[in-house]
Write a structure and sequence with these properties.
This protein is of the alpha+beta class and about 110 residues long. The protein contains 2 helices and 5 strands, in the order βααββββ. The protein has a domain at about 45-100. Strand 4 (about 90-95) and strand 5 (about 95-100) form a beta hairpin. The termini are far apart.
Length: about 110
């Protein structure tokens, strides 16, 4: 055997490669998404009864109910709705009860 210092197989501890970091535990479902930002979150429709909706629309409660009755349309599934304007729809519950849905409300 030759005693050439370049061909030795021993290495010093300082010359060894650093150990890789320990592996992270993965959750069962994989990566989680960060919560949506308010401007990226889809808007949920806001549903009000006729008294609250009349205040928002600045009209009398009876006038809003009459407007809902005049615009009422029965769908193929039997649901009665009344389109009141862009993004505003009234939905009939029961015999004389209406709820007003405002789409894209934030």
């Amino acid at each position: 055997m030759s005693s050439n210092p370049e061909t030795t197989t021993t290495t010093k501890p300082s010359d060894a490669a650093p150990a890789p970091p320990p592996a992270r535990k993965r959750t069962r479902r994989g990566k989680t998404r960060p919560p949506a930002r308010p401007h990226e979150r889809p808007a949920t429709p806001l549903i009000m009864n006729t008294k609250e909706a009349a205040e928002v629309l600045r009209c009398a409660v009876e006038a809003l109910r009459a407007r809902c009755r005049r615009a009422a349309v029965a769908g193929p599934d039997g649901e009665v709705t009344a389109p009141l304007g862009p993004g505003i729809t009234a939905i009939k519950f029961g015999r004389n009860s209406w709820r007003v849905r405002f789409d894209n409300a934030k």
